TrEMBL record:
InterPro entries cross-referenced by the UniProt entry: CB (IPR044068), DNA_brk_join_enz (IPR011010), Integrase-like_cat_sf (IPR013762), Integrase_catalytic (IPR002104), Integrase_recombinase_N (IPR010998), Tyrosine_recombinase_XerCD (IPR050090)
UniProt domain Core-binding (CB): residue ranges: 43-176
This protein's UniProt keywords: Cell cycle, Cell division, Chromosome partition, Cytoplasm, DNA integration, DNA recombination, DNA-binding
Protein known as: Site-specific integrase
PANTHER family: PHAGE INTEGRASE-RELATED, TYROSINE RECOMBINASE XERC
Length: 422
């Protein structure tokens, strides 16, 4: 039984950054053994009677998500934060959490103490003298300055809140099934509306303008001409993200799949398709346009390969520039895309288009996917776009149809604040 912390003890815990608990998936294959390692490494947890059992059940839960690194990382982040808050701040075990505790935890996540917040992403553990050691620079929360040096608010976005509720609800349901908990605190928060907003309108899709995309393409094409050894790959990557609206996870190699050139396949009618392993480990076939096929030919010619792939070809779709094998880091891809956005912004600003370029300062990789879908849905059947995008429902694809909002705004454009009365 854990005694709830006094205000002075809570203040002390908030002033000290916690150590990371859970390492990579391959390090926690044995939950019992790894839980003992954590308790031994962190003497402060030895005073908490239920910490060991909390850890074992949490590690068992996380081991069930060994099919996707992204899912594991997301679930590890949320469960680790909750454990640290329970033990260090609230003075409770998982079995003692009630609705009020969970609401307090959500408020804590929206305004974490400075000592728990880092200014950059840092690895949880580092290899030192052949052993995995906690990284003292790691923090449970990260608040990075934007490109202008401004520190954004730590308040969780609606998307982040929805993800938090979804992950913790799944987590608690697992613990109930394991007879470790009796109730799901997330289910007890009846009035989630005070955290989650319901919009009476459809949120606009965040996308690039056609002018911005033109500048991005021109910028990368110029880079590829100046330094083909490095940027022909960048040009091909950007066209894949836009032209086939792929996700980053569908381009890099991980434990689910390793995309290869042989994934480009020609059917009996001579049409080309790309086999993709998407979210939920679902396989889909994406149509390859003539322009995209031309981009593939150009990239393969640069690599010294035949213009088109052959059946069963195992050449990595996105190969490392140095060394052998495929790109495995989504962070590396994000860096490349961000570099393209930054250079395009500079070119637009130099041509007197700084105002039109502003969105490039906040755009992300996923905007390329949004932009590609938004353009295609204007002239392609939305059922076809849905299949290529891998959307689970037509409602998701419908979000990209902005004709109604354009017409609605056009009808209101000439409204007068001082109407003419006849």
């Amino acid at each position: 039984m854990i005694k709830r912390r006094s205000p002075s003890v809570k203040a002390s815990a908030k002033a000290c950054p916690p150590s990371p608990l859970i390492d990579q998936l391959d390090e926690i294959a044995n939950p019992l053994k790894y839980a003992r390692t954590i308790i031994k490494r962190n003497p402060e947890y030895q005073e908490i009677d239920d910490a060991f059992d909390d850890l074992v059940h949490t590690l068992t839960f996380l081991n069930a998500y060994n099919g996707s690194t992204a899912t594991f990382n997301s679930y590890r982040r949320e469960t680790e934060r909750l454990l640290q808050w329970c033990w260090l701040i609230n003075g409770t075990s998982l079995g003692e959490i009630d609705r009020r505790d969970l609401e307090a935890y959500i408020h804590f996540c929206q305004d974490p103490p400075p000592s728990w917040t880092g200014k950059k992403q840092a690895a949880r553990f580092r290899l030192k003298e052949g052993e995995r050691q906690p990284n003292s620079e790691w923090r449970p929360f990260v608040n990075k300055a934007d490109k202008l040096g401004n520190m954004p608010s730590m308040a969780l976005s609606q998307k982040s809140l929805q993800s938090l509720f979804a992950v913790l609800s799944t987590y608690f349901n697992f613990l109930i099934q394991e007879d470790y908990l009796r109730q799901n605190p997330v289910a007890l928060i009846r009035q989630k509306s005070k955290f989650l907003q319901r919009h009476a309108y459809q949120e606009p899709v965040r996308r690039l303008s056609n002018l911005q995309w033109d500048f991005i393409l021109e910028t990368i094409d110029e880079l590829a001409q100046q330094n083909p050894g490095e940027h022909e790959r960048t040009l091909f990557l950007m066209k894949c993200l836009f032209g086939m609206y792929l996700r980053i996870s569908e381009l890099v190699a991980d434990e689910r799949s390793a995309p290869v050139m042989g994934d480009f396949q020609q059917d009996q009618d001579g049409n080309w398709w790309l086999r993709v392993v998407g979210k939920g480990n679902k396989v889909r076939m994406v149509t390859v346009s003539d322009d995209m096929l031309g981009a593939l030919r150009r990239y393969r010619t640069h690599l010294g390969l035949p213009p088109l792939p052959y059946v069963g070809e195992n050449t990595p779709l996105l190969a490392k520039l140095r060394g052998r094998g495929p790109v495995t880091s989504t962070r590396q891809v994000r860096y490349l895309v961000q570099k393209c956005f930054d250079l395009a912004f500079e070119r637009m600003a130099a041509k007197g288009l700084k105002e039109e370029a502003q969105e490039l300062r906040v755009s992300t990789v996923h905007w390329l996917r949004h932009t590609g879908i938004s353009e295609d849905v204007k002239f392609r059947p939305k059922e076809h776009v849905r299949e290529d995008a891998g959307h689970a429902s037509m409602a998701t694809t419908d979000r990209y149809i902005d004709t109604e909002m354009r017409e609605r705004h056009a009808s209101a454009r000439h409204k007068k604040l001082k109407p003419d009365f006849d």
